[in-house]
Amino acid sequence: MEIKNYDFNGKKAIVRVDFNVPIQDGKITDDTRIRGAVPTLKLILDKGGALIIMSHMGKPKGKKKPELSLGQITGAVAAALGVKEVKFAADCANADAEAAALKPGEVLLLENLRYYAEEEGKPVGIEKEDPAYEAAKKEMKAKQKEFAKKLASYADCYVMDAFGTAHRKHASTAVIADYFSADNKMLGLLMEKEVAAVDAVLGNIKRPFVAIMGGSKVSSKIGIIENLLGKCDKLILCGGMTYTFAKAHGGEIGNSIVEMDKLDVALGVEELAKKNGVELVLGSDCTATDGLDFGTMTVKPGSKIINCPANQVPAGFEGVDAGPASQKDFAEAIKGAKTILWNGPAGVFECDEFTAGSRAIGNAIAEATKNGAFSLIGGGDSVACVNKFGLADQVSYISTGGGALLEAIEGKVLPGVAAIKGE
């Protein structure tokens, strides 16, 4: 069922959103995720429906932690929706009365789903190595189904609009769909956009297709990299990965981050790129420092900042950003692209001294987009980059999902999508 065609009049819709927003001193510091869900939630209200909103916040792991209570954001949600009040159910697993009393046009927000271990469906307090783990896992899966059934009982229909959690087979993201008929479960507007954006990049490629993968570890991105090497024309690898590739060729990398057990993997990536005719673009130089304080994301007083070849980082120094030559190479590789995917920064962009590499990538993507490219930005750090540099309105699409987007790029089926589409 498509949400635009569904008749919500007089019905209660339970909607899974991603309201896992950052909170500092009791205030939301970034409401992007709330704003992202507004079109779906307003559509339901405008069509005469009642809203039951559910989400997780943080990782309470089955424990009730006041600092992770969704009760903190009822005011912000009400303001975003333009309603007088958002009612709150302090116990998501026992909200029968609150749900039953809900009238068309009214909104109920359930407490943090992860206050219950059943949401994630993982045994608590027992390690995988324990002989009793499998039995505990089976028992928890049964409890997860009961938890999902309970959530489903509150409403007439189910809407999945939390792309950021679509890669998890949790009670509220996938299992709950089993308790609704095909005509009464659907993707929300945000989810539809996310799925379409991924398809535009991977299923309907306009060439040249340039992918940019950043981040610190090759190991965390290897599945994605290998999948992209079968699809893209150029692949830019930047960020901390740079130094694992440099080390694989015998380079000196000082104190730069490196995965010594993945040197062969790096060489394998280079071979696969060559075999597939993909132009692999690696950073040739870097900006390095001997005094970055990762705790405060500042350079310690009296520290040095230098530019040097990525394979000749002096002892005591750490590569923290792409250098001037690399920035030019990255921008040149992006120029003329018709499809662009960016996941992961080129350096420690959180520190103002080391934003140049990521900024160069962002500016090049904005320019290519202006010239007709479809650009998809995904992953928390990349999204933070485009927001920091004021480029959010100069790219085609910004994904709200980190892990979900990566798994979709890797070619995996997302449980939160499959549960709705019956895949």
Task: Indicate the overall shape.
Answer: globular
Number of strands: 21
**Which percent band covers the strand fraction?**
15-25%
Query: Based on helices, strands and strand pairing, what is the structural class?
Result: alpha/beta
Alpha plus pi helix count? 13
Helix content: 25-40%
Could you describe the 3D structure shown?
Helix content is 33%, strand content 18%. A hairpin with a 4-residue loop joins β14 and β15. It starts with 11 loop residues before the first strand and ends with a helix.
Short recap of the structure:
The chain is α/β, with parallel strands linked by helices and 423 residues long. It is built from 13 helices and 21 strands.
Tell me the layout of helices and strands.
Elements: E1 12-16, E2 23-24, E3 27-28, H1 32-46, E4 50-54, H2 74-81, E5 87-89, H3 96-100, E6 107-110, H4 133-152, E7 157-160, E8 185-187, H5 189-202, E9 209-213, H6 222-228, E10 234-237, H7 241-248, E11 252-253, H8 263-276, E12 279-282, E13 285-289, E14 292-293, E15 298-299, E16 305-309, E17 312-313, E18 318-322, H9 324-334, E19 339-343, H10 356-370, E20 374-377, H11 380-388, E21 397-398, H12 403-409, H13 415-421
Helix pairs in contact: 1-2, 7-8, 9-10
